[in-house]
Amino acid sequence: MVDMTKSVIVIDDDEDTVRLFSEFLEENKINVVGSGFDGVAAVRLFKETKPDVVLLDLNMPNGSGFYAIKKIQEIDSQARIIAVTADGSYSTEEKLENLKIPLIQKPFKMDQIISIINN
C-alpha cells in the first residue's frame, strides 16, 4: 500500500497561525515537516525537507513571501507553493498569477486548503 500523505511546510510570521494551521493539517493526515516565520526560513526548510507543498504567507519580515517564492523556484522550478495572505490587492494577485501560484485569502477556509494540497 502506497502512503499518499502529502508533506507540507507552513511559513507565516504569525506563530498562532502556524500552530493552528499545523494542527489542522496533521488532523487531516497531512504531514507538516517544518514550519517557519519568515522567507529566509522558508527557503532553508524547503532545501532541508523537500516538501510536496509550501504554504507561504506573503507579508513577512526577513525575506517576504515573494523572496521565498523566487528562491524556492530557483531550487525547484516544479515546487508547489500556495500563497496564503490577507493582501488581496490586484498587483499581488497578478504577480502570483504570473508565477502560477494559487492564492488563498485570509481568513481562509480550512477545507479549501486541504483540497488544494491534496489535488
Query: Which percent range describes the beta-strand content?
Result: 15-25%
- What is the assigned CATH homologous superfamily? Response regulator
What is the number of E strands? Answer: 5
Q: How many DSSP H or I helices? A: 5
The CATH class turns out to be Alpha Beta
**Biggest sheet architecture:** 5 strands, parallel
Radius of gyration: 13 Å
Q: What's the domain count?
A: 1
What would your notes on this structure say?
- This protein has a single domain, classed as 3-Layer(aba) Sandwich (Rossmann fold), CATH 3.40.50.
- With 119 residues, the chain is of the alpha/beta class.
- The chain contains five helices and five strands; from the N terminus they run E-H-E-H-E-H-E-H-E-H.
- The chain has a five-stranded parallel β-sheet, with helices on both faces.
- It starts with 6 loop residues before the first strand and ends with a helix.
- The chain is globular, with a radius of gyration of 13 Å.
- The model has no long low-confidence stretch (mean pLDDT 90).
- Helix 2 runs parallel beside helix 3.
